[in-house]
TrEMBL record:
Belongs to the UDP-glycosyltransferase family. This is UDP-glycosyltransferase 76E1. Gene3D superfamilies: Glycogen Phosphorylase B. It comes from Morella rubra. CDD domains: GT1_Gtf-like.
Length: 456
C-alpha cells in the first residue's frame, strides 16, 4: 500500500446512523476523521435521536422518518423488534433520497459510497440497487461480527453447540476467548426477531465492499483472522475513532461539567467513576445495592445516574437520606458526564462500567482499570475481553449485592491484585498509543481505507 496520504477531495460519503448514543458517537467521529481526509460528508439519520447539526457545520444532514412513535421507542420494546422496524421503515425514504441525490449529482462532488452502521442493513440493499459500494461499520468488537455470523444457524457450524460442556471449550483461534464468550447473548432462547436480525446483518455485511471496525488490531488479533474467513471484503481496524477525531461532543443528553471541578479537588487516582452507558436500566433494588456498595467502599466516587436508569425515575430521588449521610462528602452524582474527559482526569483511578464497547475503548486509551458488570448483549463479550483476555479489569458477576460491590472496589483500588491490574491497564494504554501514532496499525489502516474508497 502506498505511503502517501490519500485525499478524498471531490468525493462525498453518505453515512447512515443507527440512532442510539453508542452508535452515534463512533459514526460521527469516523465521519469527522474522513472529512479531515478531504471527503465531503452527508449524514442520514432518523427523526428519532437526531444528532445536533450545529455541532458539525461542515456536514450536510438529511433526516428520514423512521415512522415509530415516541411511545413505542421509549416503551423498552425488545431491541431486535425495534431494530427490524427501523430497517423496514427507513428503506423506502432512503432509496428515494439516494435516487434524487444521484440524479442531480455534481461531478465535482460525486458520491463515492454509502457508509452505514452495520445494524442499518437496509442501506446496503439500497446501495446495491443504486449501484454504489456499501461499507459496513461495526461500532462494537470485531468478535461480534463472528457472533452474528455463526449464530443464525449454530447447528450448521461444525463445532458450535449450545451444550454447556462444549461452550466451556476454548476456541484456539480466539485468544483466550471461549466459545461461551460468543454465546453470552445467546444463553437465553433467541427470539425469531433476534435470529432474523443476526441473519440480515450478516448477509448485508457479506455484500459490503469493505468493513470498518472501531477496534485496534492488537486487541483482537486472533479473532480478526477468524472473522476475515467469514467475510470477503477487506476489514479496516481504524479505532479508536475518538482518539483520531477532534473532540466535538455528540452527546444527546447535556453533559454536566460540574463533575470536572469536583474531580479537580480529589486525590490522584482515588476516584471510581461509575456509568452504565446510555441504555442499560435496573430495578430500584439494584440501584440501592450499588449506592450502598459505593458508600461502604469508602472510596470517592463519581456516579452517572441517567434519567430512566430505573424505569420511571428521573435522577437520584430514589436514594434514601442515610445514603447521603454516609457518602455525601465523598460522592458526586450527575445525570450525564463528559465521559472521555472524566476518564482522562488524573483523579480517576477506576471505572465501574457496563462494558459498552465505546466505554471499554475510552477506558483502555486512558489506562483506567475497570470493574465490569455487563447488563445485556455484547457487553458480556466486552467484559470477557477486559477481564480474561487483556486482564485489565475485574468482573462483578451475578446479582448486584452491596457487600460484593464494596469488596470488588477495594480489591481494584487498594490491593496488590488491583495494582497488577492497574499496571496492565497502563501497559495497554501505551500499546494503544503506538497503534495511533505514525505507522501504527490504526494510522495505517485509516490511510488504506481512504485509498480503498478512492479506488471505487
Ligand atoms: N457517555 C457519556 N457520558 C455519560 C455516559 C456515557 O458521554 O455519562 C458516552 C460514552 O463516552 C460512550 C457512550 O456514551 O461514548 C456510550 O457508549 P457505550 O458503547 O459505552 O454504551 P451504550 O450506551 O451503547 O450501552
Amino acid at each position: 500500500m502506498e505511503k502517501q496520504e490519500a485525499k478524498g477531495l471531490g468525493r462525498r460519503l453518505v453515512f447512515v446512523v443507527y440512532p442510539f448514543q453508542g452508535h452515534i458517537n463512533p459514526m460521527l467521529e469516523l465521519a469527522t476523521i474522513l472529512n479531515s481526509k478531504g471527503f465531503s460528508i452527508t449524514i442520514v439519520h432518523t427523526e428519532y435521536n437526531s444528532p445536533d447539526h450545529s455541532k458539525h457545520p461542515d456536514f450536510s444532514f438529511v433526516s428520514i422518518p423512521e415512522g415509530l412513535s415516541q411511545t413505542i421507542l421509549s416503551s423498552g420494546r425488545d431491541f431486535a423488534t425495534t431494530f427490524l422496524a427501523f430497517n423496514n421503515n427507513c428503506e423506502a425514504p432512503f432509496q428515494q433520497y439516494m435516487e434524487k441525490l444521484l440524479e442531480v449529482e455534481n461531478p465535482q462532488d460525486r458520491v463515492a459510497c454509502v457508509v452505514y452502521d452495520g445494524l442499518m442493513h437496509f442501506a446496503q440493499v439500497v446501495a446495491d440497487r443504486v449501484k454504489l459500494p456499501g461499507i459496513s461499520l461495526r461500532t462494537s468488537a470485531a468478535a461480534t461480527l463472528l457472533a452474528f455470523a455463526v449464530f443464525p444457524h449454530p447447528q450448521e457450524q461444525g463445532y458450535i453447540s449450545f451444550q454447556d460442556s462444549v461452550c466451556q471449550a476454548q476456541v484456539p483461534e480466539l485468544q483466550t476467548l471461549m466459545l461461551k464468550d460468543l454465546l453470552v447473548s445467546m444463553t437465553e432462547k433467541p427470539t425469531t426477531s433476534l435470529l432474523e436480525m443476526r441473519a440480515t446483518v450478516t448477509n448485508a455485511t457479506k455484500n459490503a465492499s469493505a468493513i470498518i471496525v472501531n477496534t485496534m488490531h492488537f486487541l483482537e488479533e486472533q479473532t480478526l483472522k477468524v472473522v476475515q474467513k467469514y467475510f470477503h471484503a477487506p476489514i479496516f481496524t481504524v479505532g479508536p475513532f475518538h482518539k483520531l477525531a477532534p473532540a466535538a461532543s455528540t452527546s444527546l443528553l447535556e453533559e454536566d461539567m460540574s463533575c470536572i471541578s469536583w474531580l479537580d479537588k480529589q486525590e490522584p487516582k482515588s476516584v471510581i467513576y461509575v456509568s452504565f452507558g446510555s441504555v442499560a436500566s435496573m430495578e430500584e433494588k439494584e440501584l440501592l445495592e450499588i449506592a450502598f456498595g459505593l458508600a461502604n467502599s469508602e472510596q470517592p466516587f463519581l456516579w452517572v445516574v441517567r434519567p430512566g436508569s430505573v424505569c420511571g425515575s428521573e435522577y437520584v430521588e430514589l436514594l434514601p437520606k442515610n445514603f447521603w449521610e454516609s457518602a455525601g462528602g465523598r460522592c458526586c452524582t450527575v445525570k450525564w458526564a463528559p465521559q472521555k474527559e472524566v476518564l482522562a482526569h488524573d483523579a480517576v483511578g477506576g471505572f465501574w462500567s457496563h462494558c459498552g464497547w465505546n466505554s471499554i475503548l475510552e477506558s483502555v486509551c486512558e489506562g483506567v482499570p475497570m470493574l465490569c458488570h455487563p447488563f445485556f448483549g455484547d457487553q458480556g463479550l466486552g467484559a470477557r475481553y477486559v477481564c480474561r483476555v487483556w486482564k485489565v479489569g475485574l468482573e462483578l458477576e451475578g446479582v448486584l449485592e452491596r457487600g460484593k460491590i464494596e469488596k470488588a472496589i477495594r480489591t481494584l483500588m487498594a490491593t496488590t491484585e488491583g495494582l497488577e491490574i492497574i499496571q496492565r491497564a497502563k501497559a495497554l494504554k501505551e500499546k494503544a498509543e503506538l497503534c495511533l501514532s505514525e505507522d501504527g496499525s490504526s494510522y495505517n489502516a485509516l490511510n488504506e481505507l481512504a485509498q480503498h474508497i478512492l479506488s471505487f
